[in-house]
């Protein structure tokens, strides 16, 4: 997968599934301010997903709009990375996921803003600012939890350990893509290792590198997420909302 | 959103116009500011004078203890209602039928969290902390609007909540924009503007459904059937049975009686339901030429009392959900406090 359609679809799916997971926190966050912050980040991801999926539909030229792509594909047709579909876990796992995702999306969108495709460049220019905020927010919490109490430190390290292997998939080389993710790895490593060091956490050492999301081979979790997300839309074929 | 129960297409000149008029009046009252009373002034007389002159009592001013307690109770219950009220609508975020609707609903529920925070801050000006108020909610010693103890069973319920529940809340809250307590009046002005936006979105959801497929239209009618009477009950018991009303009216915390506001709401909804092509589930609803208002069937107040006292369909669910979020978040809040303390002591050492 490296054509503009596949590339755009994959980024749109990343954002959509991340939004769906983050929105699960609504009414459940550890404090009210955080409920608002997580909803904000979910809204940003959803906004990016809508732009990317709409554009992917145009690139495909088969008449599929954002909703057709979001609601009428099965899990084998989704192209998101595995990271975003993982369950939220506790707040530490969610922050570990957000740290990895935003430390990947920030350099990705920044590079996109300078790419030759004007539409992708415009989307990148808008979303990179949001990603910078997501990264700030995640990094702040990772530091607080890592260097907070004994329990929060234990949970934050466990969260990082759990999420870390899924970072590998994000940087698989795609030399033909508008931005080759492999070129973002150094930036990502520098960002994340600085945050983890400040947070008194250790960078996990794991050889396991689960992958397959970009080829439609997902974890068992995605199908459940889609079942919930798509149930109403699919129950009323052709209806407008 | 908030009702009076325990304690669309609105014309721009209508309720929103009243919000703007209240805002202008508030600014005018601020310009007439008489400053703090001098040493030898009778504080109770000064308080009565400010109320009489339709000016605002501010946190720095002396106020009767009962006034303070009434306001704390009312503002806190309002804040709790915003926070608990996130749940019934939050229930549909994951299943919203289009990405646009998902974004709108997520933003709406987020607004309610914002209203909750804003109102807790208004209550804090009366000398009580947010943590204390949250504790009172979790222990069941303070209430929230009983409307949120009804379940959201279909997507159309999200529309019905926007149209009817937010609509009732606006009718109830617009007069609060002129409340005698400054911080509450200012909070209400801001909240009303956003609620009016929410109401339009809810109405739009129902409008799409009512003009959609037969299944969608049936879903919309079913939602109206279930939400109509609980929405009427949001204005609280009939005037004769309302315990807090008379004193609150005298203090200009409250400006209209429960029954007046309920009537106003019904009169507003009838035309809106006609535009939707939906039927309000009241066979006795009809225009009364003499009263220049609609006659309608009262909600079941015995049911309202049951729901208030804890036996509504979702009371237990809503409280359990809130308590669980609070309990499960404890370690995060403790970590944030510990981290902040470490940072502060590091800064001290550095200085």
UniProtKB/TrEMBL annotation, chain B:
Gene Ontology MF term list: phenylacetyl-CoA 1,2-epoxidase activity
GO cellular component, one term: cytosol
Record Gene3D superfamilies: 1.20.1260.10
Biological process (GO), any one: phenylacetate catabolic process
InterPro entries found in the cross-reference section: Aromatic_CoA_ox/epox, Ferritin-like, Ferritin-like_SF, PaaA, PaaA_PaaC
PANTHER family cross-referenced by the UniProt entry: 1,2-PHENYLACETYL-COA EPOXIDASE, SUBUNIT A, PHENYLACETIC ACID DEGRADATION PROTEIN PAA
Name of this protein: 1,2-phenylacetyl-CoA epoxidase subunit A
Organism: Micromonospora zingiberis
């Amino acid at each position: 997968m490296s054509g503009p359609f596949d590339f755009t679809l994959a980024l749109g799916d990343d954002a959509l599934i991340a939004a769906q997971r983050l929105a699960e926190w609504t009414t459940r966050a550890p404090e009210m301010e955080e409920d608002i912050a997580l909803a904000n980040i979910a809204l940003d991801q959803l906004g990016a997903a809508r732009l990317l999926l709409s554009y992917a539909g145009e690139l495909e030229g088969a008449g599929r709009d954002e909703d057709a792509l979001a609601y009428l594909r099965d899990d084998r047709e989704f192209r998101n990375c595995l990271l975003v579909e993982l369950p939220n876990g506790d707040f530490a796992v969610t922050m570990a996921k957000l740290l990895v995702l935003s430390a990947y999306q920030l350099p990705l969108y920044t590079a996109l803003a300078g790419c030759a495709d004007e539409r992708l460049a415009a989307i990148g220019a808008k979303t990179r600012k949001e990603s910078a905020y997501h990264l700030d927010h995640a990094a702040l919490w990772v530091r607080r939890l890592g260097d907070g109490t004994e329990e929060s430190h234990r949970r934050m390290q466990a969260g990082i350990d759990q999420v870390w292997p899924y970072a590998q998939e994000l940087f698989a080389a795609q030399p033909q893509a508008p931005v080759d993710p492999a070129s973002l790895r150094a930036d990502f490593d520098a960002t994340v290792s600085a945050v983890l060091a400040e947070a008194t956490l250790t960078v996990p050492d794991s050889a396991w590198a689960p992958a397959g999301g970009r080829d439609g081979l997902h974890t068992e979790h995605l199908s459940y997420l889609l079942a919930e997300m798509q149930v109403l839309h699919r129950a009323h074929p052709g209806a407008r909302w | 959103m908030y009702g009076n129960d325990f304690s669309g297409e609105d014309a721009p000149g209508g309720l929103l116009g009243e919000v703007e008029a209240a805002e202008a009046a508030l600014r005018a009252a601020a310009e007439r500011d008489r400053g703090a009373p001098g040493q030898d002034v009778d504080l109770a007389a000064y308080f009565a004078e400010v109320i009489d002159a339709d000016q605002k009592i501010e946190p720095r001013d002396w106020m009767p203890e009962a006034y303070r307690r009434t306001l704390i109770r009312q503002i806190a219950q309002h804040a709790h209602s915003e926070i608990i009220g996130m749940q019934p609508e939050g229930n549909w975020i994951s299943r919203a039928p289009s990405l646009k609707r998902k974004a709108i609903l997520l933003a709406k529920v987020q607004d309610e969290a914002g209203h909750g925070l804003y109102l807790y801050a208004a209550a804090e000006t009366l000398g009580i902390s947010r943590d204390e108020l949250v504790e009172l909610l979790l222990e069941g010693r303070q209430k929230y609007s009983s409307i949120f103890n009804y379940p959201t069973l279909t997507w159309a319920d999200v529309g019905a909540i926007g149209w009817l529940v937010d609509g009732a809340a606006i009718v109830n809250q617009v007069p609060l924009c002129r409340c005698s307590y400054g911080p509450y009046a200012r909070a209400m002005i801001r909240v009303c503007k956003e609620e009016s936006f929410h109401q339009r979105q809810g109405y739009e959801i129902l409008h799409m459904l009512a003009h959609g497929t037969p299944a969608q239209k049936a879903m919309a009618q079913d939602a109206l059937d279930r939400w109509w009477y609980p929405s009427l009950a949001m204005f609280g018991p009939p005037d004769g049975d309302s315990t807090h009303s008379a004193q609150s009216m005298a203090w200009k915390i409250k400006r209209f009686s429960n029954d007046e506001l309920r009537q106003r709401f019904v009169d507003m909804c009838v035309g809106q339901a006609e535009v939707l092509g939906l039927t309000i589930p009241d066979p006795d609803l009809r225009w009364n030429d003499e009263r220049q208002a609609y006659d309608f069937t009262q909600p079941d107040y015995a049911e309202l009392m049951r729901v208030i006292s804890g036996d509504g369909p979702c009371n237990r669910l809503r409280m359990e959900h809130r308590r669980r979020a609070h309990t499960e978040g404890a370690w995060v809040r403790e970590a944030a406090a510990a981290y902040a303390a470490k940072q502060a002591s590091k800064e001290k050492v550095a200085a």
